[in-house]
Structure formats: C-alpha cells, structure tokens
C-alpha cells in the first residue's frame, strides 16, 4: 500500500463511521506565539477540545501537516523527519475509549490486513495523578491482544503531552506497535526493542492541567489519535526506512542525478537533503520566508544544511532546483497548491541558496584568517564561525582535518548549548496545549488584523489579499499582496481608518455559516482555504452592526475581542517587502500604539 492509498483508506474508514473530514491547518499556527510550528494534529483543535462547539460536529478526521524541529539533528537515520503528515481522528465529547480502541483495531486488522500476531500495545500504568488505565487494557484483551503483549508504562511513554508537565488538555494514551523484525514474532512485548515500531497513538483527553500543577476534569471527554503517514507506509511495505518508500525515492533519485553520486554510498547526506528540501518546500508554500528569526530561521537553517550536504557530495553548483521540483511532484497529489506556487517556491529557495554562497565565501575567508593568526581553529573558533557567518561545523571540521588537526566538539557543543538555551526561551517551546493566547493582548491584535486588512483594501484597492499573519504578545505581522512600497500618505490613511473604527467602539460577533451564505455576505476569505472546508461550514466574524454599518466581515477561527474599543489605539511600526509582490506590515495596539503615534506626531 502506497502513502496516498493509506491516506484515502484512513479518511474513508472514519467518514463511513460518521466523521467529518476537515482540512489540514497551516504549518504556522495562526494565533499561538508559544510555538513556531504545528507539531501535532491536536494543535489547531485545542479550543474545541476545551468545549467550544466545532462547526463540523463531534466526530472529525483529517491529515495534518506537522513539523518538529527537535528532530533536525536526527534526520539521516531510517525514521526521523522534520516535516511529516499525521493521520488523525477525533471525538469531541462523543465516543471514548471503548469505541476508539475498537476503531483502531478494526482499521489495522480489517482495513489494512495487519496480523494481530504482529501487534503489541502499551497503556498508562497509573500514578498519583491518574489511575491505571484498566478500561483500555480490558478493551485490548477483548480485541484478542494477549496480556504479555501489553506493556504498562508511565507518563513519559503513555501520556500526552509526554510527561504531563505542561498546562492544557491532556490525558493517558494507548500506543500500537508493529513487529518489523524477522519471524518468529516474540511472544512478549519489550518496548525497548527497536524492532517494535510505534504506528498509532490514541490519546484520551479528560484532564486540563492547571498552571499550579493540579489536574481538573475537562468539560467533555475527548479522543485524539495520531498515525504517522510516512512511518506506517514504510511498515506496511516492509521497509526499514521511510526513505525507501515512494514518498522519497523520486527525490533521492533527483539528488543522485544532480550530484552524480550514488545513494547507496551517501545515504545520510541524501536523506538530509531530501528531508530538508521537502520541508522547505512545504514551509514556503505556507508563507514562510528565510530570515534570522522564528520560522524563517528554521527555514534558513534547513536550506543551508541541505546546501552543505550537496557540497559534501561535490555538487558545487548546488543544483537544488531539480530536488525542489521532485519534492513538489511527490507531494502535489495531496497538496495541489504546490504546483500553483512552484515558481515562488523555487525563487525563494534559490535566493537563499545564492545568499548562502556568499556566507560560504565569507566563512572560508574568516577561517583562513583565524588559522593564519593562530595556527589553530578549535571549538570556540568553530562556534564563532558558526554564529557569526552561519558557517556549518561540519565544514569547519573538514577544513581542519585537511590541516591534519581536529576540532574540540565538546567546546563547540558547550558554546552552542549556551546560545541555544538563551534563544530557546523566546523561540520554540514544547506544545503545552492551547491557543496560547486566548490572552487579552492576543485577542486585541487578532481583531486589529481584521481592521487592518479592510483598511488596506480601502486605501490600496481590492487586489489586497492576506498572504500570511503572525501574532505575538507584543505585535501583529501581516503579509499582503501589493506590488509597490506604501507611501507615507497611504500608511497614515490606513492608521486613521483603523483608529476611527476603534473609537467607534464597534461590536465584534461571529456566526457559523455555509460557504454559500458567507459568499453572499461578501465575507473576506479564500474559499479554497482551510475554513471553507470545515464540514461545509465557516466561522464568519463581523465588525460592526446594522445600526452603525458593517466595517469588516471575514472568515476566521478567532479569538477576538467583543468590542473594537478594547484596542484603544493602533499604529503601524514597519512596512517592508516580504517577497516579490508581497508587502509586510508590523503594528501594535494599546499603550504601545499610543506611544508610537505620539512619537510620529512630534
């Protein structure tokens, strides 16, 4: 079974059982500054796990795009990927453990034909916070799983999020493992044996961990499951590596062609290139561009690591374009938008590759100077080259080896860890659950984004369309289609319009409408986009009312303030180019906006 067949079989199985198919959310969380990327299928659904009604009902299924940066250094082995797809089904206060486990067992054994003899299970062993998961254990026994094939493990293994130390929705889980080794299959399940590969995880969310560490029951019991598409495809095909499936072989072939080297002798390098370029393609498609901050920094790092590996394969021309095309070709059946954006994706990645050529040149010069002055380049010097020029440690090591010496990697790692600890505090944090910011400030900034969008249309024209957004605790960032730099007059007019709507103290409300109803009401939104396919329903936020007129009507998932007066004030802080035909605005509200406006008016 190939990946696209598994994807279809999974969706069909759960749709037949009353689940509504919903689209994947973006890799970049729209309203959650606590994380850089969507790391799990549950991430976009947290408000609904906490009890907010979902427009599509209580049973959902989808394939979610996910990205986990913690796996970057592990890429190159058989299983680690940065970008992957997660098959998932949810029950929002509907069915619970009995039905969820039965669905999982039936799909594996009946739909996929997995022999029960090759399955093993783990369940939560229980602790001071929650009891042993007897119900899940009994259900698996009833399905025909032998007791010696069921392991009872603690929070680090059978709780989601792992360890149960972060606030938000969570609970015990049960995991399914497949024996990938030779016959005979062991009669007992040893979780430490790597030949048992995890393929599916059913999470039973019944707790909401408070900030003080206590566990409160959720208003409803939920089920959140996750099956890695790439890993399960490999297992079903009898492959030991995800890179040996049809999802990657065309990409690796393109790398062999451009580098004129063989995969069999350069597996690790080619796997890194395949993974990193594939992830880069998906990030650019979701509106991320290389930069030195946040998501852009991760994209930059991925592209540069791929270029470095091509360099090791003696591909000095860095023919990454053909690899990009191969990635798009393999993913396009699932994500047609990739073909529409192929030129933009190629342009963004090619530009970063060209920029890194300059980095390589500068780094080589700096290396020569360091070595000439001291006759030595150690761990500290290697980190200086890395942090100042983006010069990869691997390249420094290669150059030092040519001099008959070595780099003290422990010193480098210590310096890197120190740097990472400092930057991580404001960067990617483990997903703790929650649109991190249901906080007042986030709601204000998100509402301001709607006002800004409409004001830009009024000042610049109807061609303006949102191309991306990001909200932190301090500011909003809004990318939009427009060819020219905004004039000072245009910026002042946009600010004026937004502040007028704030002073009017307009009400903000929402309704769940059908796509046709939303179109008739002229709601702003791409109807091919995420919200347009949530069971045929969309959430439409309206700013204004019949009495004072409607200023904005836009498809959105929230959260928002209830009155524009809560924003107090609005100010643009920056307007710049994001990419060809795309402009970027940064803005603030409240006291920060008042201060910014005061400075402008002096």
UniProtKB/TrEMBL annotation:
Signal peptide: none annotated. Binds 1 zinc ion per subunit. GO terms for cellular component: cytoplasm. Keywords: Aminoacyl-tRNA synthetase, ATP-binding, Cytoplasm, Ligase, Metal-binding, Nucleotide-binding, Protein biosynthesis, RNA-binding, tRNA-binding, Zinc. Zn(2+) binds at residues 446, 450, 556, 560. Catalyzes the attachment of alanine to tRNA(Ala) in a two-step reaction: alanine is first activated by ATP to form Ala-AMP and then transferred to the acceptor end of tRNA(Ala). Also edits incorrectly charged Ser-tRNA(Ala) and Gly-tRNA(Ala) via its editing domain. Consists of three domains; the N-terminal catalytic domain, the editing domain and the C-terminal C-Ala domain. The editing domain removes incorrectly charged amino acids, while the C-Ala domain, along with tRNA(Ala), serves as a bridge to cooperatively bring together the editing and aminoacylation centers thus stimulating deacylation of misacylated tRNAs. Belongs to the class-II aminoacyl-tRNA synthetase family. This is Alanine--tRNA ligase. The lineage of its organism: Bacteria, Candidatus Uhriibacteriota.
């Amino acid at each position: 079974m190939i990946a696209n067949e598994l994807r279809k079989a999974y969706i069909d199985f759960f749709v037949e059982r009353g689940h509504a198919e919903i689209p994947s959310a973006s890799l970049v969380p729209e309203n959650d500054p606590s994380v850089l990327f969507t790391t799990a299928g549950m991430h976009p659904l947290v408000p609904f796990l906490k009890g907010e009604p979902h427009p599509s009902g209580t049973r959902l299924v989808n394939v979610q795009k996910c990205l986990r940066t913690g796996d970057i250094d592990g890429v190159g082995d058989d299983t680690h990927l940065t970008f992957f797809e997660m098959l998932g089904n949810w029950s929002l206060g509907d069915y619970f453990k009995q039905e969820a486990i039965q669905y999982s067992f039936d799909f594996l054994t009946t739909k996929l034909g997995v022999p029960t003899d090759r399955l093993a299970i783990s369940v939560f062993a229980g602790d001071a916070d929650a009891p042993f998961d007897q119900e899940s254990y009994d259900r698996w026994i009833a399905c025909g799983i032998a007791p010696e094939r069921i392991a009872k493990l603690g929070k680090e293994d059978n709780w989601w999020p792992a360890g149960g130390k972060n606030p938000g929705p969570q609970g015990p889980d049960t995991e399914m493992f497949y024996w990938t080794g030779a016959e005979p299959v062991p009669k007992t399940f040893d979780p430490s044996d790597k030949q048992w590969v995890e393929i599916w995880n059913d999470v039973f969310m019944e707790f909401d961990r408070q900030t003080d560490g206590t566990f409160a029951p959720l208003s409803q019991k939920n089920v959140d499951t996750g099956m890695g598409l790439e890993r399960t495809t490999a297992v079903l095909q009898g492959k030991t590596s995800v890179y040996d499936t049809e999802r990657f072989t065309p990409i690796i072939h393109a790398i062999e062609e451009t580098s004129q080297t063989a995969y069999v002798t350069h597996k690790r390098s080619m796997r890194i290139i395949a993974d990193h370029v594939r992830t880069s393609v998906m990030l650019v498609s979701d509106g991320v561009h290389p930069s030195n901050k946040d998501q852009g920094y991760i994209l930059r790092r991925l592209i540069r690591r791929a270029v470095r590996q091509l360099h090791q394969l003696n591909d000095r021309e860095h023919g990454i374009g053909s690899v990009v095309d191969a990635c798009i070709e393999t993913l396009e059946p699932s994500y047609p938008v990739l073909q529409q954006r192929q030129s933009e994706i190629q342009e963004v990645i090619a530009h970063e590759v060209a920029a890194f050529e300059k980095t390589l040149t500068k780094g080589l010069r700096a290396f020569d100077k360091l070595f000439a002055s001291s006759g030595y380049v150690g761990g500290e010097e290697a980190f200086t080259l890395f942090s100042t020029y983006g010069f990869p440690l691997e390249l420094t090591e290669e150059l030092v080896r040519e001099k008959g010496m070595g780099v003290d990697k422990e010193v480098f790692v210590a310096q890197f860890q120190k740097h990472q600890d400092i930057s991580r505090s404001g960067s990617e944090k483990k997903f703790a659950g929650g649109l991190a910011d249901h906080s007042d400030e986030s709601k204000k900034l998100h509402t301001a984004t709607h006002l800004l969008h409409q004001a830009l249309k009024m000042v610049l024209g109807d061609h303006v369309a949102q191309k991306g957004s990001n909200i932190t605790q301090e500011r909003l960032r809004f990318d939009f289609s427009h060819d020219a730099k905004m004039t000072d007059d245009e910026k002042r007019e946009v600010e004026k319009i937004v502040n007028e709507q704030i002073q009017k103290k307009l009400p903000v409300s929402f309704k769940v409408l059908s796509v046709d109803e939303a179109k008739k009401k002229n709601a702003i939104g791409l109807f091919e986009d995420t919200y347009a396919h949530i069971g045929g329903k969309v959430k439409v936020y309206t700013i204004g009312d019949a009495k004072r007129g409607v200023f904005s009507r836009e498809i959105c998932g929230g959260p928002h303030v209830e009155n524009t007066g809560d924003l107090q004030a609005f100010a643009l802080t920056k307007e710049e180019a994001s990419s060809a035909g795309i402009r970027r605005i940064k803005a603030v509200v409240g006291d920060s906006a008042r201060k910014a406006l005061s400075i402008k008016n002096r």
